[in-house]
Write a structure and sequence with these properties.
Layout lengths: L1 E3 L8 H7 L7 H7 E5 L7 E5 L10 H19 L6 E4 L5 H11 L3 E3 L12 E4 L7 E4 L13 E8 L3 H13 L4 E9 L3 H14 L2 E9 L8 H11 L13 E4 L18 H18 L9 E5 L5 H13 L5 E5 L18 E6 L2 E9 L6 E3 L9 E8 L7 H7 L3 E9 L8
Parallel strand pairs: 4-5, 4-8, 8-9, 9-10, 11-18, 12-13, 12-17, 17-18
Antiparallel strand pairs: 1-16, 2-3, 6-7, 14-15
């Protein structure tokens, strides 16, 4: 049994104290949405870890979908009567957030990708300057077009400088010019200087770029933050171990995703396409629910860019399994410094060969709410009864990931292979 710590600063206090991070304006609102962790990166000190994104922290699927809807509402408030021509989300972190925002707006949706399809032209590519994985590609196909009229909305989880968004605007505007763009995020954490630089570059591009955010603040960092971060990494405890209980079994459930329905918006989905994806997710949940009967907790795990469909499966499972706690999160390419500290947002990291490319590493962080408190035993022994993994790779290629997850499922790891999203023929 677990309880979740109430209140705001539980997942940000440790890093705030060690680095001297300030959160002006609404620190309680910030901590409701976010925690803080350290990066294993000598050039960047900290990472804002969303508590409602379903990426690094397990979250109830309703909270994840509500966060996307809140981004959509923020965009609608900025646009007024105008209707977006297209919503674009950034891989991998914001693929699900952008999709939920587009669904709220009733708009077509496309996300950037690092899994480039060899049979589809790359319409645009650009760099994410601060990221561990910088290349983004846009590969629309079918009924989704970057030249669609109307404002273009770019969705990310967080704005720290806005440079990535403006790089995107510059790339797209040179080829498909339009009158208006909106950059949307859960958190706008730009400093005053970053806001001025953003406005100056947007003006130089000669185009209107509005910002819509659920929470606006500005993190303040000391001048020696990188040195403090290096000292903090050395001072923190190590990552939490795996749970001590016996590992669960691995069960593969092939063929659950309806044929012909895309699993992501890697090549774009109209609003009708998003509705079809939701119906497919409900069909998967209907098939899985009887297998999960009696579970004391279910974690639905997406894989990297595949976030929105697993979140919908989790939401439908929550509706079909009354009284069973259901959470969702995703694997990631992103490395984070893990430390088993109750005031820290990433208490454990697990690595394994990526199912789509075994030559590189994929990760999953936490696997349990880092703010949860065990009624008996250490936090590290908390785990779900059942872990449901949706992966857009063949089951055999997912075997190392499933094996790595076994200690985190008291009953079973349920592997659900789904098709890689392919463009319409």
């Amino acid at each position: 049994m677990t309880t979740t710590l109430p209140g705001a600063l539980d997942l940000g206090g440790t890093v705030s104290r060690l680095l001297g991070v300030g959160v002006p304006g609404d620190p309680a609102g910030f901590a409701t949405l976010c925690g803080l962790a350290l990066r294993d990166n000598p050039r960047r000190a900290h990472l804002v870890v969303s508590r409602v994104l379903g990426k690094h922290v397990p979250a109830p699927p309703a909270a994840v979908l509500d966060a996307g809807a809140a981004v959509g509402d923020a965009v609608a408030a900025v646009l007024g009567p105008e209707v977006p021509g297209l919503v674009v989300g950034y891989c991998e972190t914001a693929t699900g957030l952008g999709h939920a925002a587009a669904a709220r707006l009733g708009a077509a949706y496309l996300h950037t990708t690092r899994r480039v399809h060899p049979g589809v032209p790359v319409a645009a590519a650009f760099e994410e300057e601060h990221s561990h994985a910088v290349a983004h590609a846009l590969q629309p196909a079918g009924d989704v077009d970057l030249a669609a009229p109307g404002p273009l909305v770019l969705v990310d989880d967080e704005l720290t400088s806005g440079r990535t968004a403006l790089n995107t605007v510059a790339e797209l505007h040179a080829r498909w010019p339009r009158q208006r763009y909106v950059v949307a995020a859960l958190l706008d954490a730009r400093t005053g200087a970053a806001r001025r630089a953003f406005a100056e570059r947007a003006a130089a591009l000669g185009v209107r770029v509005d910002v819509a955010a659920v929470l606006t603040t500005g993190l303040t960092l000391p001048a020696d933050v990188l040195d403090r971060a290096a000292a903090a990494r050395a001072a923190l405890p190590g990552p939490a171990p795996a749970p001590a209980g016996p590992p669960g079994a691995v069960r593969t459930h092939a063929g659950l995703w309806p044929a012909g329905v895309p699993t992501t918006a890697r090549h774009g989905l109209t609003a009708a396409g998003t509705a079809g994806l939701a119906e497919a997710a409900d069909a998967v949940a209907a098939a899985l629910a009887p297998l999960l009967a009696g579970s004391r907790g279910v974690l639905v795990l997406g894989t990297e860019e595949l976030m929105y469909a697993p979140t919908l499966v989790a939401a439908r499972l929550a509706g079909r399994l009354p009284g069973v706690p259901v959470t969702t999160q995703s694997t990631t390419r992103s490395p984070v410094h893990a430390a088993d500290d109750p005031g820290y947002a990433v208490r454990r990291s697990l690595t394994f060969p990526a199912p789509d490319d075994p030559s590189r590493v994929s990760r999953v962080h936490n696997l349990t709410d880092p703010a949860a408190v065990a009624t008996a035993g250490p936090w590290s022994d908390l785990r779900a009864d059942d872990v449901v993994v949706l992966a857009d790779a063949p089951a055999a290629d997912c075997a190392p990931m499933a094996e790595a997850l076994r200690p985190f499922a008291a009953r079973a790891v349920h592997l659900v292979p789904v098709p890689l999203a392919e463009p319409a023929p």
